[in-house]
Amino acid sequence: MNYTQKKLKNQVKFTVTLTKEEWEEANQQAYLKNKGKYFVQGFRKGHVPRRILENIYGKGVFYEEALNIAVPKYYSEILEKEKEFFPVDAPDIDIKDIDGEGGGVTFTATVTVKPEVKLGDYKAIKVKRPEYPVSNEDVEKELKAAQNRASRLVDVEGRPAEKGDLVTIDYSGSIDGKKFEGGTAEKQSVELGSGRFIPGFEEQIVGMNAGEEKDITVTFPEDYHKELAGKEAVFKIKLHEIKKKELPELNDEFAKDVSEFDTLEEYKADIRKKLEQSNERRAQAELETRLVEALAEASEVDIPQVMIDNQVNDMLQDLTYRLMYQGMRLEDYLKYTGQTPEQLKASYLEDAKKAVKSRLVVEQLIKEEKIEATQEDVDVKIKELAERAKKSPEEYSKDMDEQTLSYIKNEVVMDKVFSLLKENASIE
Questions:
Q1: Which of 77, 311, 335, 402 could form a disulfide with 225 if both were Cys (CB 3.0 to 4.6 A apart)?
Q2: Which of 143, 384, 148 shows the shortest CA–CA distance to 275?
Q3: Do 179 and 190 meet the contact criterion of CB atoms below 8 Å apart?
Q4: Mean pLDDT, 10 residues at a time, over the chain (428 residues)?
Q5: For residues 75 and 53, what is the distance between their CA atoms, to the nearest angstrom?
Q6: Can you tell me the distance from the alpha carbon of 252 to that of 241, in angstroms, rounded to the nearest whole number?
């Protein structure tokens, strides 16, 4: 095999010529792979000699399969040699000559590669440090949440439903007398005042008694999914039972029940400490994001559209998984938001472009500064992770696979990247 290369804008074009012997080898492999498909009188199926098949069906009977074998093989060999190029898409293959001079094959493989990055001066970037102080209100909110988790539900008797109650209802919705998809449910739990249902729904259940039935009328919001947006609907409601939350008193006994502390003040102090730690992690993560974004802004790179498109597809895949965990399909989400697939993709374009540019800039910084994860770095990180998991480093790393080790090395490298940026950037 011989080949030449030509650099184009964000692409490399390889012109590849296979020798007669290499082309013959590919045709023989194609014959061996496909000979079982042919039947010729006088021969057992799968045992027809290749020359007989070529006489009957033509010399090029196996050319297509031979190309499918040869092109990926020799293209891969070229990439193994040309380490400076990193393809970001499948190559565009063009067959130029078959059985030409010398009896071999010539084809071109044009592939989009990672673009060159002109890195900005990371010592000149300026960012504002994010701060998230913990207020008394934040502590009280967490305390109320803990109180709510420790609550118990008790039956309500002798009064109608009130805001804050948890009611169990059947409902059946219709528009112009016709039921619609998703508008019917039985034994549905509804917390009155939670705002989970459309405006006016929960409010009209307030005042109903257990066992009572009632028709309520609501109007779907204009931004609801298209089939129901802005339409008036009638729901038949049957209220089965009313329960209310009984909250424990916030005192030292409560603190002992829900925590390791003996007093409420100690528990509140621990809540504040954990919020401060959480907010500090959040602030550090945001600072790191700002530093990378600032460096990306100061850098120059012409991003191939295919890289942006791939990032958009990754983001859509992530959205699909998140919706799936919530019990919703992407198609339902599009209906609910009133978007077409094309509009949803378009909404991700700018964020996708920023994400790709940031990734390319970080990779270039790692390359230029020769940042790497040494064995000592990896050992320190493993020890840190083992301590968090309450294991020894030996126990933690015993069953570690290559993927996990690669992830740890990447974490070490990124830690060094952020340290470098923090040490050199101007942070206000």
A1: 335
A2: 143
A3: no
A4: 93 96 95 93 91 94 95 95 92 91 90 95 94 97 95 93 95 93 92 91 95 95 80 95 95 96 97 97 96 96 95 96 90 84 94 97 96 94 90 87 92 96 94
A5: 29
A6: 34
Q: What pLDDT score was predicted for residue 292? A: 97
Neighbours of 390 (CB within 10 A): 8
Contacts of 197 (CB under 8 A, 6+ apart): 190
Q: Could you give the angle at the alpha carbon of 64 between the alpha carbons of 59 and 65, nearest 5°?
A: 105
Task: At 415, list the tokens.
Answer: 């830690």
Q: Which two tokens stand for residue 319?
A: 């959205």
The amino acid sitting at 1 is M
Dihedrals φ, ψ of 345, to 5°?
-60, -45
pLDDT of residue 227: 78
3-state secondary structure at position 424: helix
Q: Which amino acid is at 316?
A: L
Residue for token digits 């549905």?
188
- Give which of 205, 236, 235 is closest to 218, Cα–Cα: 235
Q: Is residue 200 within 8 Å of residue 260, measured between CB atoms?
A: no
Q: Are 400 and 98 in contact (CB under 8 A)?
A: no
The 3-state secondary structure of 45-70, one letter per residue: CCCCCHHHHHHHHCHHHHHHHHHHHH
The side-by-side arrangement of strands in the sheet containing 2-8 is 2-8, 11-18, 105-112, 92-98
d(CA 168, CA 237): 10
Ordered domains of the chain (ranges, CATH): 2-113 (3.30.70.1050), 152-246 (3.10.50.40)
CB 359 within 8 A of CB 311: no
The residue among 365, 317, 301, 355 whose CA lies nearest residue 113 is 301
User: Angle CA(59)–CA(62)–CA(67) in degrees, nearest 5?
Assistant: 120
User: CB-based contacts of 155: which residues, under 8 Å, 6+ apart?
Assistant: 241, 242, 243
- 3-state DSSP call for residue 343? helix
For 295-307, give one letter per residue: b (16+ CB within 10 A) or e: bbeebebebbeeb
The pLDDT, as a whole number, for residue 266 is 97
